[in-house]
Write a structure and sequence with these properties.
- InterPro entries: Multi_antbiot-R_MarC.
- Pfam families: MarC.
- With 199 residues, the chain is mainly alpha-helical.
- The chain is 81% helix and 0% strand.
- 37% of the residues are buried.
Length: 199
């Protein structure tokens, strides 16, 4: 039981870092700045639900699809680690400027994807499923759905209390953690690939 709870907690934290709901607050709030609070919260809810549905889909069907093409776990770790590293570096240096993005339905594009359910988080749920199992991964998605909506729905309060600069600093810290996590994935994937080749 203790081990199962630890798996859920570890899966939740790892996915939380990749989703970066806190770091997305300035971006999401900027994209919905012309909306009333009730309308904004509906958009936030829709974006979180759509992103979560995408993550559940890839949790259930991601590996079987790619396994058909003989893609190994080591391949995923290396490729996913590179993707996460790029996302982390972009976050650290502030390269992602979502204010420039526009869509007919902001809740889906760019908010649900790629800002929440992007390549990094899609890889992450498949990695979590392979590492911790299906139930902890699905629970981590559920908990992150709830946490993400609570954070975004209270974004105006958080921005008012902490200030935009503080939120951006927290986002940079999460991006650094993500980059470090990505390096560990790449190292682990290379080690597995070498072992599989008998090196």
């Amino acid at each position: 039981m203790v081990l199962a709870l630890k798996d859920v907690w570890d899966a939740f934290i790892m996915l939380f870092i990749v989703l970066d709901s806190i770091g997305n607050i300035p971006i999401f709030y900027s994209l919905t700045s012309g909306m009333k609070a009730s309308e904004r919260n509906k958009v936030f809810l829709k974006s979180v639900l759509v992103a979560s549905a995408l993550l559940v889909f890839f949790t259930l069907f991601g590996y079987p699809f790619f396994a058909y093409y003989n893609v190994s776990v080591a391949d995923f770790k290396i490729a996913g680690g590179i993707i996460l590293f790029i996302i982390g570096i972009e976050g650290i240096f502030g390269k992602i400027e979502a204010e420039m993005l526009r869509s007919e339905d902001l809740a889906i594009v760019p908010m649900a994807t790629p800002l929440l359910a992007g390549p990094g988080s899609i890889y992450m749920v498949m990695y979590l499923n392979n590492t911790f199992g299906l139930v902890p991964t699905l629970l981590s998605i559920l908990l992150n759905t709830i946490a993400g909506y609570i954070i975004l729905a209270n974004s105006s309060i958080l921005l008012g209390k902490a200030g935009k600069n503080t939120v951006l600093v927290v986002s940079r810290i999460f991006s650094l953690f993500l980059a470090v996590l990505a390096v560990s994935f790449i190292r682990s994937g290379i080690e597995e690939a070498l072992r599989s080749m008998g090196a």
